[in-house]
């Protein structure tokens, strides 16, 4: 079955708020990696528990009144509650397990019994916008490395990475946007094909010699280029080391967090892997762990020989350490190394989706941003680049890193454009869960916090409650599933700008309170930038 998001102005639901959520659910599968199995990204990050659940959710979204709330437990609709018109239309919790049981073994057991699913960060709550969802984050990492190590310029620089999946597939385009030559290794050719078809990757080959010849040629002419090499990263990284080839930057964004369904072991073919996962999951996990450890040892050797290396948020160091790589954590995590100063001010991956399906709606919002955020270099640089490079996937959408007050300013302006009929239909606003007040993951988002509060997961829970009491249209609490079980807690929200004054109020409350909490979270941990933001933006902080 092929699911595509409805475009245009025809409503199937009782209002735009409901219709918007329905289109976002459909859009998740339109952009998904394995829609037949409801998988959106991240190996097993799903949009709904199973097909009966999906169809029931669709039916309910078509019927639900403005003063009702649909409850979803790990992708399965459970019931409808009578609430009020300012309450969220949908509330959900995905993948949560109580502390002592929060491990991947227990998760897989419950997953096999179809009692839970992994919602990823943006899959279970229908906020996925294709590979572009994390592209600015990766681009800003490359820019930060360029500033710090390469005099601000990655032209003629070589990036080695792995993973061409849902999120990891943004790496080749982010590399090209940063001016570099990027070799991205993925074991699955269909993934490379998908990235080429969607405009995120330029070339692919099975042949390492050919790939390296392309790399050399592009480096010598300082032309940006992205190459997908169809191979296993655990084989290729050590092979490059053996040949004395040391890239300037090395990372990996395979689904390394999940040794059963994510990271592919070196010595098992993709066709036999599917069967082996069922017949002998322990063997798959063990082989994947050993291959991954081999790759991480190579990354550490690259580092030793001068490459800039980083963990791009897939728990690869944690897995490697469990498989004997004692010094895996010498690889820095991208958040702490490059992006934390932005998160300290609650500047994070905000996004919006044109429910009309019209690219012109996104272009008009781009124009607004360029005109009205002209003194914000991150925004203007990104919006110009995104307009030029980032292809449309599914419902046209845009991501841009915006902070407290900025998100609201944009959303209210867009709501006004909808009201005036200048946009063809309403616009949905949301963000990645990987945001200032919304995520605890002590090996990704909250590693090495100043006050040592890395594992405290009160913040995302407070975040979801704040979103619910601030009139968001959808609110989600997620935890880690698969290999992430026990590692993370996060929260998400979605608000629809339908041009009404009620929407303006919802957007202002939900977005302002969301970023206020982000700033307060970092202020509480003692970050100067956050304390400065509290003062500058008049955020009401309780001082003890
Ligand atoms: P995905 O499952 O869609 O894609 C992963 C890709 O890795 C697949 O194409 C797979 O074939 C490939 N792969 C697996 N093992 C391999 C190996 N040994 N060698 C080469 N290729 C291999 O997952 P995704 O959505 O791309 O996410 C990837 C990882 O990134 C996940 O762990 C996810 O949690 C993480 N992630 C991080 C961020 C962030 O903010 N930094 C954001 C999103 C996702």
Automatic annotation (TrEMBL):
What InterPro entries does the database record attribute to this sequence?
Urocanase, Urocanase-like, Urocanase_C, Urocanase_central_sf, Urocanase_N, Urocanase_Rossmann-like, Urocanase_sf
Q: What is its main location?
A: cytoplasm
Annotated Urocanase N-terminal domain ranges read 3-126
**What's the superkingdom here?**
Bacteria
**Class of this enzyme:** lyase
* KW Cytoplasm (keyword) present: yes
- TM segments? none
- Per UniProt, which keywords does this protein have? Cytoplasm, Histidine metabolism, Lyase, NAD
Identify the residues that bind NAD(+): 186, 232-233, 253-257, 263-264, 482
Q: Does the keyword Lyase apply?
A: yes
GO cellular component terms attached to this protein's record: cytoplasm
The note describing how and how many cofactors are bound reads: Binds 1 NAD(+) per subunit.
Where the record annotates domain Urocanase C-terminal, the positions are 341-535
Q: Which compartment or compartments is the protein found in? A: Cytoplasm
Segments forming domain Urocanase Rossmann-like: 130-338
The catalytic activity, as recorded, is: 4-imidazolone-5-propanoate = trans-urocanate + H2O
EC numbers for this chain: 4.2.1.49
Any one GO molecular-function label of the UniProt entry: urocanate hydratase activity
Q: What does this protein do?
A: Catalyzes the conversion of urocanate to 4-imidazolone-5-propionate.
Similarity field:
Belongs to the urocanase family.
Protein's recorded name:
Urocanate hydratase
The species is Lactococcus allomyrinae
């Amino acid at each position: 079955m092929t699911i595509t998001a409805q475009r245009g102005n025809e409503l199937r639901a009782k209002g735009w708020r409901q219709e918007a959520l329905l289109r976002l659910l459909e859009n998740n599968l339109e952009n998904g990696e394995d829609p037949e199995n409801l998988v959106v990204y991240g190996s097993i990050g799903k949009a709904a528990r199973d097909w009966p659940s999906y169809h029931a959710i669709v039916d309910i979204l078509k019927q639900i009144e403005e003063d009702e709330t649909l409850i979803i437990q790990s992708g399965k609709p459970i019931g409808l509650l009578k609430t009020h018109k300012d309450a969220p239309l949908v509330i959900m919790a995905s993948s949560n397990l109580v502390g002592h049981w929060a491990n991947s073994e227990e998760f897989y057991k419950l997953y096999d019994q179809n009692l839970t699913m992994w919602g990823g960060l943006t899959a279970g709550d229908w906020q996925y916008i294709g590979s572009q969802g994390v592209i600015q984050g990766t681009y800003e990492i490359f820019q930060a490395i360029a500033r710090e190590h390469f005099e601000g310029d990655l032209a003629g620089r070589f990036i080695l990475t792995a993973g061409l999946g849902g999120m990891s597939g943004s790496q080749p385009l982010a590399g090209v946007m940063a001016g570099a030559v990027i070799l991205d290794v993925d074991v699955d050719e269909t993934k490379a094909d998908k990235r080429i078809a969607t405009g995120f990757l330029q070339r692919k080959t099975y042949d390492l010699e050919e790939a390296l010849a392309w790399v050399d040629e592009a480096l010598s002419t300082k032309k940006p280029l992205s190459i997908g090499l169809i191979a296993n990263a655990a084989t290729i990284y050590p092979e490059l080391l053996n040949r004395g080839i040391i890239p300037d930057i090395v990372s990996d964004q395979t689904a390394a967090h999940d040794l059963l369904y994510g990271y592919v072991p070196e010595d098992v073919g993709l066709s036999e892997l599917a069967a082996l996962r069922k017949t002998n999951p322990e063997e798959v996990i063990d082989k994947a762990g050993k291959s991954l450890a081999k790759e991480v040892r190579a990354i550490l050797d690259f580092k030793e020989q001068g490459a800039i290396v980083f963990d791009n948020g897939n728990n690869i160091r944690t897995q490697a350490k469990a498989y004997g790589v004692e010094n895996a954590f010498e690889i820095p995590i991208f958040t702490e190394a490059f992006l934390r100063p932005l998160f300290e001010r609650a500047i994070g991956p905000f996004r919006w989706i044109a429910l009309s399906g019209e690219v012109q709606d996104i272009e008009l919002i781009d124009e607004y941003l360029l005109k009205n955020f002209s003194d914000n270099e991150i925004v203007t640089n990104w919006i110009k680049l995104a307009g030029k490079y980032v292809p449309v996937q599914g419902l046209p959408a845009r991501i841009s890193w915006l902070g407290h007050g900025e998100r609201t300013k944009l959303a209210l302006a867009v709501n006004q454009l909808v009201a005036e009929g200048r946009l063809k239909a309403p616009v949905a606003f949301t963000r990645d869960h990987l945001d200032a007040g919304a995520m605890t993951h002590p090996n990704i988002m909250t590693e090495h916090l100043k006050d040592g509060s890395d594992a405290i997961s009160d913040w995302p829970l407070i975040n979801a409650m704040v979103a619910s009491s601030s009139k968001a249209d959808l609110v989600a609490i997620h935890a880690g599933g698969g290999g992430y079980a026990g590692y993370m807690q996060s929260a998400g929200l979605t608000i629809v700008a339908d041009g009404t004054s009620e929407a303006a109020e919802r957007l202002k409350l939900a977005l302002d309170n969301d970023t206020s909490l982000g700033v307060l979270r970092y202020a509480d941990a003692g970050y100067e930038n956050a304390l400065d933001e509290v003062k500058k933006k008049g955020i009401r902080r309780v001082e003890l």
